[in-house]
Amino acid sequence: QVQLVESGGGLVQAGDSLRLSCAASGRTFGWYGMGWFRQAPGKERELVAAISSGGSTYYADSVKGRFTISRDNAKNTLYLQMNSLKPEDTALYYCATHAKLGIVVVSTEYNYWGQGTQVTVSS
After folding, report:
1. How far apart are CA 39 and CA 95, in angstroms?
2. I need a surface site. Which of 46, 86, 96, 122 has the fewest CB within 10 A?
3. How confident is residue 94, by pLDDT bands cut at 50, 70 and 90?
4. What pLDDT, on the 0 to 100 scale, is given for residue 29?
5. Measured between alpha carbons, how far is 86 from 17 in angstroms, rounded to an integer?
């Protein structure tokens, strides 16, 4: 059974930084691509960033240049470094994984999800 546990969220001010972590267990972590999603109240869940098993990355336009996704296969952990945070980044952030090696941008193809960690950015 694959388990994903996010941590690192919190309340910060605009311009601050946060690093989210996602600890994975239950299968060989390094074989599969992963992603970070977020969902703000009243909005649909959106893909923020994705990473392949080989380390290739994808970013939503809204976070390019500010967020960095990375993975440490030895620690079975996925990260999302978030810099220059804005109030519009406020959301519940989820990590997720799927059954492919590459980058997947469609949320319905992700079959394992964490419970989420809240990020709140005040102005």
Report:
1. 12
2. 122
3. very high
4. 81
5. 10
